[in-house]
Design brief:
Radius of gyration: 22 Å
Bound molecules: glutamic acid
Strand order of the largest sheet: 3-4-2-1-5-7-8-6
Mean pLDDT: 89
CATH class of the largest domain: Alpha Beta
Largest sheet: 8 strands, mixed
Order of helices and strands: HEHHEHHEHHEHHEEHHEHEHEHEEEHHE
CATH superfamily of the largest domain: Acetylglutamate kinase-like
CATH topology of the largest domain: Carbamate kinase
Low-confidence stretches: 216-220
Number of helices: 16
Strand content: 15-25%
Shape: globular
Amino acid sequence: MHADESRLRRTASESRRWVVKIGSALATREGAGLNADAIAEWAGQLAELRRAGRDVIVVTSGAVAEGAARLGWKVRPHSLHQLQAAAAIGQMGLVRCWELAFKECGLLAAQILLTHEDIANRERYLNSRSTLWTLLQLGVVPVINENDTVATEEIKLGDNDTLAGLVSNLVEADLLVILTDQDGLMTADPRSDPTATLIGAAEAEDPRLLAIAGDGGAWGRGGMRTKVTAARLAARSATSTVIVGGRRPGVLLDIAAGRSVGTLLAAPATKLAARKLWLAGTLHVRGRLKLDAGACRVLREQGKSLLPVGVMAIEGEFERGELVSCIDESGREVARGLVNYSARETAAIKGLPSSRLEEALGYLREPELIHRDNLALV
Ligand code: GLU
């Protein structure tokens, strides 16, 4: 489906920040609890990627399946409350298993429980993003699952596929790897069509993919459709996706070596365009910051973050994490971005050098008013 798979594979192999999603079917042994050997095998590969200077983040499901096994349940219950209870039990084992596996490789792991809402809510978005980035800087591997006690999106439908796409946006991953029990995305359902072949590479936004992936029903929960949708979500932050069989030995290292394994769904090449689209498309502008000429120049020409010192005036009511528009002295829009401080806080620190923020606020979060990663020029 894609003429230039080898170039796309090379780009994927050079990816620096990886999100690796592992589904319940792989992380557990059908009804018999966690597959610690398989988890140790992936942790070993992830540790190797880390040693090679890449950032790695795990999105793992398996809590419900492990909890059900601990409770001695033989079939998956229909009641959401029972599934949530099972998740609360199983999460303890799941996170312990990953922790031990990474410890064997000399790495620290950290548990993060998130919901879709956490990522949609601007303040929680920024808070979770700061925590994740700090963990990565510390060389720790974040191990993420849905917080199944307070949310049920992934229990109902996605087996964490969507969550993995959203996490890829959150950390601006270069690559999302979805490990599954299939070889990748096929041209048709191989169980009903013997001529089905594996798709080596395609554009993530190719509309034909959703039709090929079907409605997910026949392929079970978190089927190919939610994986293609996750790849489309990931593409918003210029993250390409590989959907691949997780039981294949050395699968992650194969991807890192640029080998043609599974299906590569390529994101649009220009990161800025994707990010701009994402910022512009998903959020409403809540306020305006009028910048002095120096700040406008630094944003436009040097691609730097916006510091409070460059802000002359503010308009509107906005909270930390909301989208604001940056305008020049003549009122022309220069950029848009997610602001680290509320309107009230911004009013207190506008025009101040970074060294005086703590004194003005009584605390300091980020030294930037808008970090350059959250800023799109217009
Ligand atoms: N977050 C859930 C888990 O880790 C989703 C998977 C499921 O519903 O089985 O188990």
